[in-house]
Amino acid sequence: MEVPYADTAGSGDPEPVPLTEPAGGVPPVVADPAALRRVARNLAAAGGPVAVDTERASGYRYSQRAYLVQLRRDGAGTVLVDPIALGGRLDPLVESLAGTEWVVHAASQDLPCLAELGLRPETLFDTELAGRLAGFDRVALGALVERMLGYRLEKGHGAADWSRRPLPADWLTYAALDVELLIPLRAALEEELTAQGKLAWALEEFEAVRTAPPPQPRAEPWRRTSGIHKLRSPRQLAAVRALWEARDAIARERDIAPGRVLPDSAIVDAVGANPEGIAELLKLPVYRGRAQRKLAGVWMGALERARRLPKKELPDPSPAHDGPPPPNRWADRDPVAAARLTAARAVLTGIASQHRLPVENLLSPDLVRRTCWQPPADVSPAGVAAALRTGGARNWQIDMTAEALSEAMHATPA
């Protein structure tokens, strides 16, 4: 049975209808090849778009793999797949979804782990992104379902450890509800975007998300250690790097989230305290615990390696960035660029407000900064449009912003 829209017509601002169970009940989890082939045939025989979601174990596991895949298609109902039990082999599912449109909420979060399983959409509708482009201030799945369909979803297990087995029944209910209304939500959002004249913009954005390259690893990820700003010297930074790398190796090997092996705060505390030996290290908070006592030799070894590094191998306290400096430094380093950025932000804010768009969806803030810091030699509308296109802007964004940005740059004194 399909879940209908809540009837809110003519009722002012009605109370949303609580939705605590899927209309067809929670299906059994698909955990063996025969069951996978059966549900794949059902999905292939059904019609229309397919709702897709995943559950990961962020904060618990090192990997970002999917521990549950949820799907729903009119005529096939809801399917819950355990990719771990299936050894990541979902070939029948890959074949059954060929040529279908996927409906995903916040697709950029789910597509990478689905790609690891061989699942890649040929067409995409991202309901979160659609909500942003429609100008809605709240775009979480529950908020959009409530606003557009009149239902209130029961939430609460999104941050759970989905690597746990067996999965509790209430978690599976939550997972099934995440795809229960995605297809009618897609229809309602498409209607809204069409009414606002934004559907073509949304289709370009969805395609950009679908075809985005995989995120590249950071050159020096240890520099994102929380609290690192308290440490100034190259030798201290080398110690942070050594502890971070030792922790990362353990976390990767054990498939545990790094923060569960050793919190960032403990890394910073140890570097700041600069203990002479294991006995001093074990006096620090966190390191007194039994788990850390077992690893004390690893942590102390990392600190000692950092102490022995020659100066030429110490990290730079102020590494070069790929791109412009933080905007709060522009006025001192390049006042003209700072003026360009101020003018550009003003015109973009005006355009975004006029069209009920978040300004960051109108044009990527990073692209705006890069264009203002190092503008094209030709700041005519055509020249600015070319620069924006090179920077990855979509056609609709260029059409809406290139001329206004050109005028803002011309108005800025050289």
Output the keywords.
single chain; alpha/beta; DNA polymerase, domain 1; 3 domains; Nucleotidyltransferase, domain 5; 414 residues
Can you describe what's shown?
This is Ribonuclease D. One of its GO terms (biological process) is nucleobase-containing compound metabolic process. Residues 316-328 have a biased composition (Pro residues). The chain is an alpha/beta fold. The chain has 3 domains: 17-210, Nucleotidyltransferase, domain 5 (2-Layer Sandwich), CATH 3.30.420.10; 221-313, Orthogonal Bundle (DNA polymerase, domain 1); 327-411, DNA polymerase, domain 1, CATH 1.10.150. The chain is 50% helix and 8% strand. The strands form 2 sheets. The chain has a 6-stranded mixed β-sheet with strand order 2-5-4-3-6-7. Strand 4 (68-73) and strand 5 form a beta hairpin. Helix 16 (335-354) runs antiparallel to helix 18 and helix 16 (335-354) crosses helix 20 (395-411). The chain starts with 16 loop residues before the first strand and ends with a helix.
Largest sheet: 6 strands, mixed
* % residues in beta strands: 5-15%
What is the total tally of β strands?
8
Radius of gyration, in angstroms, nearest whole number: 26 Å
Classified by CATH, the class of the largest domain is Alpha Beta
Class derived from helix and strand content? alpha/beta
Q: Which architecture of the largest domain does the CATH hierarchy give at level 2?
A: 2-Layer Sandwich
Number of helices: 20
* Uncertain runs: 1-11
Average pLDDT level: 94
Identify the strand order in the major beta sheet: 2-5-4-3-6-7
For the record, the count of structural domains works out to 3
How far is the first residue's CA from the last residue's CA? 66 Å
Shape: flat
The assembly state of the depicted protein chains is single chain
Give the % helix: 40-55%
N-to-C SSE series?
Answer: EEHEEEHEHEHHEHHHHHHHHHHHHHHH
CATH topology of the largest domain: Nucleotidyltransferase, domain 5
> Going by CATH, what is the homologous superfamily of the largest domain?
Ribonuclease H-like superfamily/Ribonuclease H
Biased composition (Pro residues): 316-328
Protein name: Ribonuclease D
GO biological process, one term: nucleobase-containing compound metabolic process
Pfam families: DNA_pol_A_exo1, DNA_pol_A_exoN, HRDC
